[in-house]
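Q: What residues go here?
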């Protein structure tokens, strides 16, 4: 039992640092950080993302997570993740301000919608800009049918071997947006 616990300690210390960063970013992010999304769902998504990006990360620091240095590193990861989530909030606030100004210039300032999350009314154009921004960030892009680059985007599992078959193509197509740049 002791040998199993020591092996598991190596696994969880590798996943610990990206998990805290993703968890903090998802807790503060505009869509997933809302009160309507359960905390368990956010933590599960943070764990899945930490497992997914683990093969691409450099080796983690060999620090005991319960030591003072480990607590400082956890605080650093939470701070960086929170800053990433706040950057999304900043962009969303700027786009919402753009929507308010555009609606007042177009004469649509009286077209108000009730926001169920915050309970305050918002104008229609800023609500549209909010939805377009969220869909732009979370878009799901599939490569064309005969594209030779489609296989190059397939994720690797923790052992370093490529996923194969239909599941891998599906996973690569659905999560390809995470590391891709937008087309212009």
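A:
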């Amino acid at each position: 039992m002791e040998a199993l616990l020591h092996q598991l300690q190596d696994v969880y210390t590798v996943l610990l640092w990206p998990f805290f960063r993703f968890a903090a970013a998802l807790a503060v992010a505009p869509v997933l950080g809302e009160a309507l999304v359960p905390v368990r769902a956010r933590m599960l998504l943070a764990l899945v993302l930490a497992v997914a990006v683990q093969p691409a990360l450099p080796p983690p620091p060999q620090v005991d997570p319960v030591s003072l240095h480990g607590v400082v590193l956890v605080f650093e990861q939470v701070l960086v993740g929170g800053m990433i989530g706040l950057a999304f909030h900043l962009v969303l606030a700027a786009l919402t301000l753009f929507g308010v100004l555009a609606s007042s210039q177009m004469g649509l300032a009286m077209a108000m919608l009730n926001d169920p999350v915050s309970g305050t009314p918002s104008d229609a154009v800023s609500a549209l800009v909010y939805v377009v921004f969220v869909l732009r960030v979370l878009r799901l892009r599939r490569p064309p049918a005969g594209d030779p680059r489609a296989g190059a985007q397939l994720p690797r599992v923790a052992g370093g071997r490529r996923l194969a078959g239909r599941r891998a193509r599906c996973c690569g197509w659905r999560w390809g947006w995470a590391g891709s740049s937008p087309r212009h």
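A: Context that may help when evaluating the design: The first helix runs from residue 2 to 28. The chain has two domains: 2-138, 143-184.
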